[in-house]
Amino acid sequence: MIFGNRIKELREDAKLLQRQVAARLELDTPLLSKIERGERRARHEHVAALAKIFNVDEKELITLWLADQVLELVKDQVEAENALSIASKELKNSKK
Amino acid sequence: MIFGNRIKELREDAKLLQRQVAARLELDTPLLSKIERGERRARHEHVAALAKIFNVDEKELITLWLADQVLELVKDQVEAENALSIASKELKNSKK
DNA sequence: TTTAGACTTGTCAATATTTGTCGAACTTAA
DNA sequence: TTAAGTTCGACAAATATTGACAAGTCTAAA
Q1: Burial B69-83 (b: 16+ CB within 10 A, else e)
Q2: Residue of chain A nearest B83, judged by CA positions
Q3: Region for B40 from its dihedrals, namely left if φ exceeds 0, alpha if ψ lies in -120 to 50, beta otherwise
Q4: Domain that includes residue A66, residue range
Q5: Best exposed site among B27, B28, B59, B93 by fewest CB in 10 Å?
Q6: Closest CA to B94 of A33, A76, A5, A94
Q7: Measuring CA to CA, which residue among A62, A96, A71 is closest to residue B77?
Q8: Would you call B95 helix, strand, or coil by DSSP?
Q9: What is the pLDDT of residues B26-85, one digit of tens each?
Q10: Where does the signal peptide begin and end (chains A, B) (predicted)?
Q11: What is the mean pLDDT of residues A87-91?
């Protein structure tokens, strides 16, 4: 739950309440709570909005958010590590 | 489309038709065709069944199948490589 | 050429999953 | 205790995925 931890940290550093951040994302507090704890997934637009709110590079958050989804996908799969390694190679390959 | 290519290759090596393999998976030919071309995703059970049909290690296929899903998830995301790298680190970390 | 077989395409309904909301239940600090 | 912040559980609505079908293309043999 890298992404959730990070945005919770950013929120606390900014001394904002879930209620306040949730309002700016136009979703309710319980949902933001779930996102912070990784129980629910943020949407791409929310990630962008969060970067604005906390004034951080959107790329940083997107990266964590993506990484979380990858982890969610491969977790409790025996071949997780191999799969990631293959995906990584393939990605570099196809970039040409 | 690593997984699809692989099962197509296995199928051709085994000199089987889509129709025949599809029958053993209990799904129709067009769907298998799509799976081979990566237009549709195979289910976990199908991967297991395919390993049996072609007499290969299930892990090999699962790995490719997972890698495909990871690629699908991160493709056309700018931070794809970073995200994979972070996910990979995190995975190794959490394994303890 | 036609025909037959293998494969592909597009579309649809059924199902499953995800999303956001609500009321209520915690938790913590005064 | 209260009050504010957060979390929980259940639900309906919105989305996505699944598998099937009919119709299409392509190739090779007749």
Answers
A1: bbbebbeebebbebb
A2: A67
A3: beta
A4: 2-94
A5: B93
A6: A76
A7: A62
A8: coil
A9: 999 999 999 999 999 999 999 999 999 999 999 999 999 999 999 999 998 999 999 999
A10: none
A11: 95
Place of tokens 């949902």: A31
Placement of tokens 């976990």 in the chain: B44
The one-letter amino acid code at A47 reads V
CA B51/CA B44 separation, integer angstroms: 11
Taking an 8 Å cut-off on Cβ atoms, the answer to whether B70 and A87 are in contact is yes
- Return the CATH number at A30: 1.10.260.40
Which of B57, B10, B34, B78 is closest to A78 using CA atoms? Answer: B57
Q: Do B81 and A92 touch (CB under 8 A)?
A: yes
- Residue A17: nearest nucleotide (C-alpha to C1'): D5
CB proximity list for B77: less than 8 A, separation 6 or greater: A62, A66, B83
Any A CB within 8 A of B90 CB: yes
Please name the residues between 29 and 88 in chain B that touch chain A, using a CB distance below 8 Å: 59, 62-64, 66-71, 73-75, 77-88
Characterize A35-63 residue by residue with b for buried, 16 or more Cβ atoms within 10 angstroms of its Cβ, and e for exposed: bbebeeebeeebbebbbebbeeeeebbbb
Number of Cβ within 10 Å of residue A74's Cβ equals 24
CA separation for the pair B10, A25 (Å, rounded) = 49
Find the nucleotide nearest A27 (Cα to C1′): C20
Domain count, chain B: 1
